[in-house]
Specification:
Complement Module, domain 1; 180 residues; 2 domains; 47% strand; Jelly Rolls; 16 strands; elongated; mainly beta
């Protein structure tokens, strides 16, 4: 959650202190950006911009904040503000790194969360559940010759694990059919 009177945002995929992406929200200007930083500010590349005007914060209510979310999947970058998608970009120059906070003025950050994608193993199952993020849903099915037991659909939880109340799905080899 963020409260600011200037520009603030999230740094992500910070490979080094001078190579990273950041997403900023211009609270006063209404100008929002996804930027690739590769050295000095003169080398910054704006990958996406948006000009959405923001709602006014109630200064008498300390819990009135903006909720900023950055979602990454491969080269895809998605920015959401208060649950609404405001910008997307695609860039594969920086594939991994740390997370941080960015601000150009007085800013208050609260409740920073970093969620890892839900990753599940393949084995003998055919899984569409790779690179999932919080609240994504996936289903499992077994390859030909196997039967599925356990939950066949799961939802990614905020801790990066799958919600599987009946246990992880298993693919059991089918009993051979006797031919006479």
């Amino acid at each position: 959650m963020i409260s600011s009177d200037s520009e603030a945002g999230i740094v992500f995929r910070a490979a080094t202190s001078s190579v990273y992406y950041y997403a900023t929200i211009g609270f006063a200007s209404g100008r929002h950006r996804i930027v690739k930083h590769t050295g000095s500010s003169s080398d910054d590349v704006e990958l996406a911009t948006s000009g959405q005007q923001l709602r006014s914060l109630d200064s008498s209510n300390p819990s009135d904040r903006y909720h900023l979310e950055v979602s990454l999947s491969g080269p895809s970058i998605e920015i959401r503000l208060d649950g609404a998608r405001i910008m997307t970009a695609s860039d594969s120059a920086i594939v991994a790194g740390d997370v941080g906070l960015w601000a150009s003025g007085a800013t208050e950050f609260d409740d920073l969360k970093v969620s890892a994608p839900c990753l599940v193993g393949g084995g003998s199952s055919s899984s569409g559940c790779r690179d999932l993020f919080y609240q994504d849903e996936c289903s499992f099915e077994c390859r030909k010759g196997f039967d599925t037991s356990g939950t066949s659909t799961s939802i990614c939880k905020d801790d990066g694990t799958l919600n599987q109340p009946d246990g992880a799905p298993q693919c059991n080899i089918r009993a051979p059919v006797a031919l006479n």
